[in-house]
Write a structure and sequence with these properties.
Largest sheet: 7 strands, mixed
Radius of gyration: 28 Å
Oligomer: single chain
Distance between the termini: 35 Å
CATH class of the largest domain: Alpha Beta
């Protein structure tokens, strides 16, 4: 696919994932530098560009976190190169400190910030939004409505950015980033740019002066003028489209992937002659003349969007300002319950809303269909809980952590973090995690808990983090804990990659995003240099891991770190390769008659186990089993055996 992204011909139509279309748009705009931090649903944009970086003279990096990614992209812009910064919605929170200052200082060459939001939290800890950051820091916001626009709007965003000397935000969502559609390519420009940072001019010279947000009053006034110029461009933008009658009974205003849902809903209802659809690609600031034109056409307005009523609120503000010209309007949307306040939308939800407003009959799914579907599913379909993969080192890690806390018997607890190991809060992680918030927050919370002895708290405090998260957000928390002599044990689950989002590189690995050899930062050495007591162990060695953990939590002086190092079972280096051939001696396995009461399949629950109800014994699924051999250590009857894989 990377060859297609690079070599596809102008005028030809290709099937692309939304994120690939965004990457192609950046290439057609002449992007030179791209930086980001991996996070679903945004990761494929940087991955696509990294695969062709050598052929296209691009610099591409997975930065330590999103704030630094934005700073790397800004440096390129300051030096006269078009740059792209990519992250998911949570990452905009991380980058917002710099973004607020960057909006004031401005940029030079085009700089586009792509944020991919996750309505419904399909692969996130929340369904938070990034759109309000554009309004808060006062930069333009664009939202592509389909796959062609995903490419074209990014290309235009670079032009707009240079026109007003401001970063421009482009927002995608999961159903646009990860679905696929047809995209017609334009040409790729030459890739022969030269970087040079001009900085000797006056403070007020945006072309050759220092890139600073001072003087604030002057810079803020400039920022407001930039937005006015953006609005003037938005008034005539081809990314704002209208379909429907001249004076519809109902005007639907929408953006992003919701445009596709609304379009399908109108077709499903057969209301093309009664409902108008205004799709906005320029969603902040809203262009008032365009809005006056369309708001004046109907007395009923339905705003369709995900997730918070950002567009709805802004439309209502514009309508209030235009009140003397457009008259009274009745609004429908999230505020009145016409559109759900949380989660993803779909054509059925939108069609249901429109049908109620216009009082037409609509049955989203017939009862006959539901009855038939339920019958076909039948009672035999097994349930499937969220779980760690077969051979996942995190299952072994949480097994040991859970066990030592039980043995210690002081009601100790673990502060969790974001990643695959978030599953440590569920049965597959033996419900070990007791807090779970943002990246790095496990260590930060532990740092706070670890100082509460003066208030009588004597519970052991642990935190779990991943290796990529360690570099992203844990270092400041670890430094804080060491400096303040907080009594905590930090367990670093080092599986050698950003596993949850596709094994992207991080500073702890000897390779960068472009596949070049890079100096790696040793986690153990960093922790020791900060001043923590450090131990290292293989989590698959349960006995040794538990002994070390017990020793660490008994040491009540300062910060202790245990690095549990074992590569992810799904990593390219390890996938499909077994360390051991594992078997169960069914003469020894007593199943429910054993004192363990099926510990392997009832509690440990590796997907590689199968409970044979008829025979009353556990068996190994040789296809699924990854051959880690950990289960040998958990069987009290000694029924599970292992031997070196051939």
């Amino acid at each position: 696919m990377s060859n297609l992204i690079l070599e596809g011909k102008k005028g030809n139509r290709y099937l692309l994932m939304g994120n690939q279309a965004i990457a192609r748009g950046a290439l057609e705009a002449g992007v030179c530098v791209a930086a980001g931090y991996p996070g679903t649903p945004s990761s494929e944009i940087i991955e696509t560009l990294s695969e062709i970086s050598k052929d296209r003279k691009l610099y591409v990096e997975w930065s330590v976190n999103e704030k630094i990614a934005m700073e790397v992209a800004a440096a390129a812009s300051f030096a006269g190169l078009r740059s792209l910064c990519v992250m998911k919605q949570n990452g905009v929170n991380v980058a917002s400190d710099f973004l607020l200052h960057l909006a004031y200082s401005g940029i030079r060459k085009g700089m586009v910030v792509v944020s991919c939001d996750d309505p419904g939290a399909l692969s996130s800890g929340n369904e938070g939004e990034s759109r309000h950051f554009a309004r808060m820091v006062e930069i333009p916001l664009l939202e592509p409505g389909d796959f062609q626009e995903a490419k074209d709007i990014v290309k235009w965003a670079f032009e707009l950015s240079e026109m007003i000397r401001s970063p421009v935000m482009v927002r995608s969502v999961t159903r646009l980033s990860h679905a696929s559609g047809n995209v017609v390519f334009d040409r790729l420009p030459p890739s022969d740019k030269t970087a040079y940072f001009k900085h000797s001019g006056l403070f007020t010279d945006p072309a050759e002066g220092p890139m600073i947000p001072f003087p604030v009053a002057f810079k803020h006034m400039q920022l407001q003028e930039k937005l006015k110029r953006a609005v003037a461009e938005f008034e005539i933008s081809s990314f704002n489209t209208y379909f429907g009658p001249q004076n519809p009974e109902l005007l639907v205003i929408t953006s992003s992937a919701c445009h596709l849902y609304a379009k399908e809903a109108i077709v499903l209802l057969g209301l093309g002659t009664r409902v108008g659809l205004l799709k906005l690609g320029t969603t902040w600031p809203l262009p008032p003349k365009l809005m006056e034109n369309y708001l004046s056409r109907s007395d009923k307005i339905l705003v369709v969007e995900e997730v918070i009523p950002f567009l709805e609120d802004n439309v209502k503000i514009v309508a209030a300002e235009l009140g003397s010209k457009i008259g009274f309007k009745t609004f429908f949307g999230k505020k009145d319950g016409a559109i759900p306040m949380t989660g993803e939308l779909n054509p059925d939800l939108v069609a249901t809303s429109i049908s109620k407003i216009l009082e037409v009959d609509y049955e989203p799914v017939s009862e006959t269909y539901l009855t038939r579907a339920k019958a076909l599913a039948g009672p035999g379909a097994p349930g499937r809980d969220l779980t760690f993969c077969p051979g996942c080192p995190h299952r072994a890690s949480f097994w040991s952590i859970h066990n030592i806390l039980q043995l210690d018997n002081r009601d100790g607890f673990v502060c969790g973090d974001i990643g695959c190991y978030s599953l440590g809060m569920l049965p597959c992680g033996f419900r070990t995690l007791r807090t779970l918030h943002a990246m790095g927050s496990g260590a930060g919370l532990a740092s706070g808990f670890g100082k509460l002895k003066m208030f009588g708290m004597d519970q052991p405090v642990l935190a779990t983090v991943g290796d990529s998260t360690f570099f992203h957000a844990v270092l400041p928390a670890l430094i804080n804990a060491v400096h303040h002599r907080s009594d905590i044990t930090l367990v670093i689950l080092d599986n050698s990659g950003t596993a949850m989002t596709g094994f992207q590189s991080h500073p702890g690995l000897p390779v960068d995003a472009m596949g070049d050899v890079a100096p790696y930062i040793d986690i153990v050495s960093v922790c020791e240099a900060i001043g923590a007591k450090v131990a290292v162990c293989d989590p698959f060695d349960l006995e040794k891991t538990e002994k070390i953990l017990l020793d660490l939590i008994e040491d009540q002086e300062g910060v202790k770190v245990l690095v549990l190092k074992q590569i992810c079972a799904l990593s390219p280096e390890k996938k499909g390769k077994k360390m051991y051939d594992v078997a169960i001696d069914q003469e020894i396995c007593l199943g429910e008659n054993c004192g363990c009461n099926r510990l392997c399949t009832r509690v440990f629950k590796c997907p590689g186990f199968i409970w044979d109800k008829e025979r009353g014994v556990s068996t190994i699924d040789e296809v699924i089993c990854a051959g880690c051999g950990v289960c040998v250590s958990i069987c009290p009857a000694g029924a599970i055996t292992k031997k070196e894989a051939a």
